[in-house]
């Protein structure tokens, strides 16, 4: 990458910090995002109500949820799939009011589906803190067959749907919640550079 060169659409993630003027805190985390949740509660236990959803696809990734529950007595809703998590989030959003602050921590495969769900419910993206944790794997949108490839670790990725070899760009679409992938051998068919693992 060129020095001093950046792409405006590329998301920049921060570190979760309590918004103390919020009336309600709504947190959604997955896997290693649990560590961000734990750090938040080590800062303080807010006086406002919290709603916490935790995606734990296996028992090992539940450890942070257990620690936070023991430490604070907060209730954490644990879900075992992204679909059930998003359904639970939607149900809880029905009872959210102005002044709710949202916090999301996990891999991009969690952050962007949650952000999309929140925006469908009219949540302003500025009220959604995002912390990227765990793997840097990208979600890649194949511009040729318009499907999403999850968990992409390499700069060249064969689309799981149409089979084209895609070069993964830094251009990020908030609509798709994914980076754009373009056919790498458009000009010289069959000439595919070696893939490097750049999103470990
Ligand atoms: Zn494709």
UniProtKB/TrEMBL annotation:
This is Uncharacterized protein. Residues 139-181 form the Dimethylamine monooxygenase subunit DmmA-like C-terminal domain. Keywords: 2Fe-2S, Flavoprotein, Iron, Iron-sulfur, Metal-binding, Oxidoreductase. The keyword Ribosomal protein does not apply. One of its GO terms (molecular function) is metal ion binding. InterPro entries: DmmA-like_C (IPR048037), DmmA-like_N (IPR054582). Residues 5-128 form the Dimethylamine monooxygenase subunit DmmA-like N-terminal domain.
């Amino acid at each position: 990458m060129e020095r001093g060169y950046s792409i405006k659409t590329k998301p920049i993630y921060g570190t979760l910090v309590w918004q103390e003027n919020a009336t309600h805190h709504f947190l959604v985390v997955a896997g290693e995002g649990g560590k961000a949740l734990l750090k938040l509660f080590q800062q303080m236990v807010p006086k406002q109500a919290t709603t916490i959803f935790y995606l734990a696809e296996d028992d090992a990734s539940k450890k942070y949820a257990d620690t936070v529950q023991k430490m604070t007595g907060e209730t954490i809703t644990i879900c075992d799939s992204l679909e059930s998590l998003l359904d639970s989030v939607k149900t809880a959003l029905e009872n959210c009011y102005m002044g709710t602050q949202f916090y999301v921590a996990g891999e991009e495969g969690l952050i962007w589906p949650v952000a999309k769900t929140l925006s469908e419910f009219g949540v302003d993206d500025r009220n959604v803190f995002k912390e990227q944790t765990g793997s840097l794997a990208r979600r890649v949108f194949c511009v040729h067959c318009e499907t999403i490839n999850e968990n992409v670790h390499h700069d060249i990725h064969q689309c799981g749907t149409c089979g084209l070899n895609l070069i993964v760009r830094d251009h990020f679409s908030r609509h798709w919640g994914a980076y754009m992938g373009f056919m790498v051998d458009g000009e010289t068919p069959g000439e595919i550079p070696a893939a490097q693992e750049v999103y470990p």
